[in-house]
């Protein structure tokens, strides 16, 4: 009798549930909760024109991004079974056009030890690059692409008369998020930082513009859109931006590049 009683209770429970569901769907407006016929989207508030300083930043980015490159590098490995060699992705970084002949400036540590590199331009072109030269002491490297219409070089500024407090703009590819703009100020000048080989890279620009892995080799610009440095490193216990980034000053770049 116990089993029979349980079956009866279960049957009545199911009947009640079915009746409740049926009652819900027969009520006026059932199934249309939250979609009242008189509901309309909110009116968008009209805003005033974009302030002049914001407009200047927008124009700086749109003008400069065409000169910035997204760099990917490859490592060559050997299949232990077949002894065949093939390339695998190794890392990413940034670079920028130095002249109208296809020379791209980046960091030495972006291309160091790589078996090859490819450059993706802002117009979508993806081309192989060849290594031209490196300066490990300054963490600088030059690669070259052969394309019919290379990207235009960035306007050249200087770094010897920079002042702490000037605005800075960094364009690069942090965490492979291509063509990212970050802004800040010159936080300090004439900093030194140990390179990966233990040597000091000296006379660096310190900035609080967000610089993260993948920004390496990208340009640091002033408010006129002129090149003032090459983003090279961050100081962060976590490995991500902590508001302390460093760039090789453009005066050093202009002296080393030739």
Query: Judging from the principal axes of the Cα atoms, what is the shape?
Result: extended
User: What's the level 1 CATH class of the domain at 167-256?
Assistant: Mainly Beta
Q: Helix proportion of residues, in percent?
A: 10-25%
Low-confidence stretches: none
CATH architecture of the domain at 167-256: Beta Barrel
Q: Please identify which CATH superfamily of the domain at 167-256 we are dealing with.
A: Trypsin-like serine proteases
Global mean pLDDT: 86
- How many helical stretches? 4
Largest sheet: 6 strands, antiparallel, barrel
Instruction: Please report the total strand number as a whole number.
Output: 12
Strand line-up of the largest beta sheet: 1-2-3-6-5-4
Range of strand content:
35-45%
Q: How would you characterize this protein structure?
A:
The protein has 258 residues and is an alpha+beta fold. The chain has helices spanning 2-26, 52-64, 108-111, 250-256; strands at 68-78, 85-97, 103-106, 116-120, 126-135, 140-144, 167-172, 180-194, 200-207, 219-221, 227-234, 245-249. It is extended, with a radius of gyration of 29 Å. The N and C termini lie far apart (99 Å). The mean pLDDT is 86.
List keywords for this structure.
alpha+beta; 4 helices; six-stranded antiparallel barrel; six-stranded antiparallel beta barrel; 258 residues; Thrombin, subunit H
Write the layout of secondary structure elements.
Layout: H1 2-26, H2 52-64, E1 68-78, E2 85-97, E3 103-106, H3 108-111, E4 116-120, E5 126-135, E6 140-144, E7 167-172, E8 180-194, E9 200-207, E10 219-221, E11 227-234, E12 245-249, H4 250-256
Antiparallel strand pairs: 1-2, 1-4, 2-3, 3-6, 4-5, 5-6, 7-8, 7-10, 8-9, 9-12, 10-11, 11-12
């Amino acid at each position: 009798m116990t089993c029979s009683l349980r079956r009866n209770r279960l049957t009545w429970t199911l009947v009640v549930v079915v009746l409740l569901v049926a009652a819900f769907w027969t009520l006026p407006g059932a199934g249309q909760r939250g979609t009242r016929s008189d509901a309309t989207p909110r009116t968008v508030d009209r805003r005033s024109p974009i302030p002049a300083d914001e407009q200047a930043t927008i124009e700086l980015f749109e003008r400069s991004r065409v000169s910035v490159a997204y760099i990917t590098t490859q490592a060559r490995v050997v299949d232990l079974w077949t002894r065949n060699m093939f390339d695998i992705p190794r890392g990413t970084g940034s670079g920028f056009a130095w002249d109208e002949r296809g020379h791209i400036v980046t960091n030495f540590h972006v291309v160091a030890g790589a078996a090859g590199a490819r450059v993706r331009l802002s117009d979508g072109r993806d081309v192989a690059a060849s290594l031209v030269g490196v300066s490990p002491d300054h963490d600088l490297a030059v690669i070259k692409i052969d394309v019919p219409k290379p990207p235009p070089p960035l306007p050249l500024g200087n770094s010897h008369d920079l002042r702490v407090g000037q605005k800075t703009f960094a364009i690069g590819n942090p965490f492979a998020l291509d063509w990212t703009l970050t802004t800040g100020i010159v936080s300090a000048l004439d900093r030194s930082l140990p390179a990966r080989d233990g040597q000091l890279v000296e006379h660096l620009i310190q900035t609080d513009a967000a610089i993260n892995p993948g920004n390496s080799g990208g340009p640091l610009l002033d408010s006129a859109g002129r090149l003032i440095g090459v983003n090279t490193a961050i100081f962060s216990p976590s490995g991500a931006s902590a508001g302390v980034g460093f760039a090789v000053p453009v005066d050093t770049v202009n002296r080393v590049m030739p």
